[in-house]
Specification:
Blueprint lengths: L10 H22 L6 H27 L4
Helix pairs in contact: 1-2
């Protein structure tokens, strides 16, 4: 049996799964964890994850759309 290792996973799928995990964990801790004075760290992490994901995806799009010379 031979495995085809040339299968490529779309970047958008990888980004969606990663950031869904970050948001899922943060939402779980905020909703079901006890009220804590450090909850602001979770909100900052969620905002950072969203911002970093958007920047990474936009830079990738920009790179793929540049004309090759």
């Amino acid at each position: 049996m031979k495995l085809d290792r040339k299968t490529e996973i779309p970047n958008i799928l990888v980004y969606c799964v990663l950031y869904a995990l970050v948001f899922g964990i943060s939402i779980w801790l905020l909703a079901f964890g006890k009220e804590s004075p450090t909850n602001w760290i979770l909100y900052a992490g969620m905002a950072y994850a969203l911002f970093a994901g958007a920047v990474k995806y936009l830079l990738h799009l920009r790179k793929t759309r540049q004309p090759s010379s």
